[in-house]
Write a structure and sequence with these properties.
Blueprint (H helix, E strand, L loop, with lengths): L32 E5 L3 H13 L3 E6 L2 H11 L3 E5 L7 H8 L7 E5 L12 E5 L4 H15 L7
Parallel strand pairs: 1-2, 1-3, 3-4, 4-5
């Protein structure tokens, strides 16, 4: 994983009392192997930090379509967080290629509020910026809807 030690992001806030605990929304019982596809290196590192803090294993942070496809083939993630715009290629292109080998629950991260087309079970959209509780809820929704969560073994 490409990593660093970034400061906490203001939009990635700690869970508040008015948000249900992870167990109450059906967050998977074990850690997921997560592939983050994000062209902004800082955002990718911050997402990795938040996901690890939630108990998941971030297998890779990729900023290109080709890198994302190669990483997915290597690690077979249980969850993918994907941004549409990448440094080379697109998030949609990466997901289309990755899903040829079988479905993986995924969460689109977008600054575009129009990306709300009908999504199949196991897929969600988070509008940037989003909070940690919103991320937890989206993870619970897509893994529950997909009927599985590939746990770290």
């Amino acid at each position: 994983m490409k990593a660093g030690h970034p400061a906490a992001a203001p939009h990635m806030t700690a869970a508040r009392a008015d948000h249900p605990p992870a167990a109450a929304v059906g967050v998977p019982a074990g850690p997921l192997r997560v592939l983050v596809i994000e062209d902004d290196v800082i955002i990718g590192m911050l997402l990795a930090r938040v996901l690890v803090g939630l108990g998941h294993q971030v297998t890779s942070v990729e900023g290109t379509e080709q890198g994302a496809v190669a990483a997915a083939a290597r690690v077979r993630p249980g969850l993918i967080l994907v941004d549409e715009r990448l440094r080379a290629g697109s998030g949609q292109g990466a997901i289309d290629r990755i899903l040829r080998d079988g479905f993986v629950p995924h969460i689109w991260m977008s600054g575009d509020p129009t990306r709300r087309a009908q999504l199949p079970p196991g897929v969600a959209v988070l509008q940037k910026p989003f909070s940690e509780p919103a991320l937890e809820l989206a993870i619970a929704q897509v893994t529950r809807a997909a009927g599985r969560g590939t746990l770290v073994r």
